[in-house]
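Recall that a protein's primary structure is simply its ordered list of amino acids. Everything else, from secondary elements to tertiary packing, is in principle encoded there. The following example makes that idea concrete.
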Amino acid sequence: AVAFENNFTNAWHVVGSLLKWLLMAKKYICLLAAVSGIGAATVMAQEPKPAEGTLTLDKKSYQFTRAVAFETTIDNEDGVAVVLSSKAIPGEKIKEARENDKEGGDTNFGPPFLKLLFKKTGEFKYFSAAAGGTTLGRHSGAAKGEFKEQNGRVTGKASQPMETEGMFPTGFDVRFDVALLKAGDSPPPTV
């Protein structure tokens, strides 16, 4: 009977030890999940926004959250266009814009949008915009802008204080950080 009690006690000791180990493993897994979640949230919080800013055209404001940047030809020289919008930009419009830019034409990306054109050096050239039934083509006014290209991305900003002298009061303040589509790259279906 003593041998049975020792085996029985040992068995419960083993079961108790396993339960303690499982409880500790569960706590460890929960802790690991929490730390991973905090790390992912921190990384996501540091991820730059592709675009942010506002266009005010004819007394109405439009927010931008999306952008695309692509190499193009402007007045017979290489340049970079950055298009900001509140919705996805069709890849076909980028192809169309590259062709129109070569010929000095404009492209309607679907309002509201703001198209910034820069020389390859990062120097601002002019902008085009459309919103609320109003379209402005190749306008410079008091607008200023700049961008830097690094690791296949363009990061920059552009602004124009509210210009009230023209027919349509216009102003904008935008920032962007997006991948640059090179001249030979085909754009995806939407950006």
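The mean pLDDT is 83. The two ends are 78 Å apart (CA to CA).
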